[in-house]
Write a structure and sequence with these properties.
Length: 266
């Protein structure tokens, strides 16, 4: 699989998580390279490249440094991918459990005669999925869903997809999984899989949520009235636009697969 690379984001101070991911990669039969993560402990939010702090505070409480560092770490992984000669890349966080079907899925996905940008390899939302675009003979289906998974432990990108995501990250105000959930805003064709091919280990402690920097799950009563109005307006638009885009993507890609004669073969 020389045209596909597997990258894992890892903090220099987390050798235990690096060892865990190396063992997972060997078990799943993939060759893994590591990308040094940005450390939130060393990050000044006022100097974080691309973080629209003013825009964030207009809608919600500030992101935590570790959340911004996570975005910047994914950005570094995408830049590493594009600097390589690979045609596709799997980007993993360093607490990911890998399915034995991950490698066959990636190989099958890159051979499909359709234009896709990113595939979420998790499925934590437990939301109902539409009929599959295609189901491969090893039992993994691809879906065009408005509900992409919470978290960002595993994504598959095409080169065009990585370029689109990087362009979108020139300015961001959400955590990475929320940001890419606005795929309709950035012209990203985002898909998801079922059953999931990447899970969370739960063995090693998170480097995103630490005792002094817990993940930011704010309540609505924490918002000022102007923040609440802006957040509600954005949420309403998001719910509508992502559903429309997912339906259009499903139709477009089903037509492309039918024309290529892949639906019956899948």
């Amino acid at each position: 699989m020389s045209e596909i690379i597997f990258l894992a984001i890892n903090l220099q101070r987390s050798p235990d998580r690096r060892a865990f991911m190396q063992a997972e990669a060997e078990r799943a039969g993939v060759e893994l390279s590591f990308v040094q993560a940005v450390d939130g402990m060393d990050l000044n939010l006022d100097e974080a490249a691309g973080y629209d702090r003013e825009g964030r505070l207009r809608h919600a409480p500030d992101l935590k440094p570790n959340e911004v560092a996570c975005v910047l770490s994914h950005k570094a992984a995408l830049e590493t991918f594009l600097a390589s000669g690979a045609s596709a890349a799997v980007v993993l966080e360093d607490d990911a459990v890998l399915s034995d079907r991950l490698a066959p899925f990636v190989e099958a996905m890159v051979r499909l005669p359709i234009d896709w940008n990113a595939v979420n390899l998790e499925n934590r939302n437990r939301k109902p999925l539409r009929p599959a675009l295609i189901t491969f003979d090893f039992g993994v289906a691809v879906h065009a869903s408005a509900w992409l998974s919470k978290g960002s432990a595993g994504w598959l990108y095409s080169r065009d997809g990585a370029e689109r995501v990087l362009r979108s990250l020139r300015s961001f105000r959400h955590a990475y999984d929320t940001h890419i959930g606005f795929f309709w805003r950035y012209g990203i064709t985002a898909l998801c899989v079922y059953p999931p091919l990447v899970g969370l280990s739960g063995v090693t402690s998170s480097t995103i949520s630490t005792p002094d920097q817990p993940a930011r799950n704010f309540a609505l009563n924490e918002l000022t009235f102007p923040q609440l109005l802006r957040a509600r307006r954005e949420r309403i638009e998001h719910e509508f636009r992502k559903e429309i885009e997912a339906r259009l993507t499903f139709i477009r890609l089903r037509v492309a697969l039918a024309r290529a004669g892949r639906l019956a073969a899948g």
